[in-house]
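SECTION: protein entry
WANTED: fold as tokens:
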Amino acid sequence: MGVLEGKVVLVTGGGNGIGKETALLAAREGAKVVVNDLGGSLTGADEGSAGPAETVAQEIRAAGGEAVSNSDSVTDMKAVEGMIEQAKDEFGDLHSIINPAGILRDGMFHKMSEDDWDSVVDVHLRGSFNVTRAAIEMFREREDGNFVLFTSTSGLIGNIGQANYAAAKMGIVGLSRIIAMEGARKNVRSNVIAPFAWTRMIASIPVKDEAGAERVERMKNGMRADQVAQLAVALCADKAKDTSGQIFAVRGNEVVLFDQPRPVKSLARLEGWTPESLLDQALPAMKANFFDMGASASVFPYDPV
């Protein structure tokens, strides 16, 4: 018997990459799955297609599982409400939503268009709001429900050229934390995963030199979408009911628990601070505890395990 036996799970972005591997694994672990995917391009610029979601649903059914497909957008609240109704109509219930759906529109911030900003924030942050808000009341009334949302080290640590993506992904961290805090008494859980995995998003990052090419090759072979899926599915299981409000990462066979912002140093001045005293005393005293501006690769410089 799988860890999700008897559960119904909605997986967004389920036609490719992490979403696809998560949908397939959830089904193998006993869940009935609604596979959602707009079927659009990486940038979200085209109209999309029902094909990718239905292909995954067919693969699940062919293996003896139960699945239906949905090709609506997570950016549309009415469409998301329809996904939840579809789960209830087809399978009688909904227990978890796993939401890796996303797009990329990378570019240096000083060159970023409003459309590129809005589109990325809309899919990632608004999409996360939609899937959680549409289900939260049902989960609270039943006193059981679970969300697995997706952040990124682009937000947690930083990567050049991804201001829109980083801002949206850090917003998801805050959203998940509050959902977890407010849902604790009602057994409604929410966690986030920062995935390291070779997907079409990672494949879109330009390779500028030989060292970059070697790093990409290591990523392709050592950090796979199916490895991320293991944690996403585990967080939906009844055995994870005491896990909520956390930030995880998956990097190859390594599972990482991230810390969350807490004070690291404090200085007080009884007579109060002035700009001059802050510059002369406070900032120099804190400088040793400043965080550097290295990208995520500087925090994870080693090959995946």
About this structure: The mean pLDDT is 93. The longest helix spans residues 114-142.
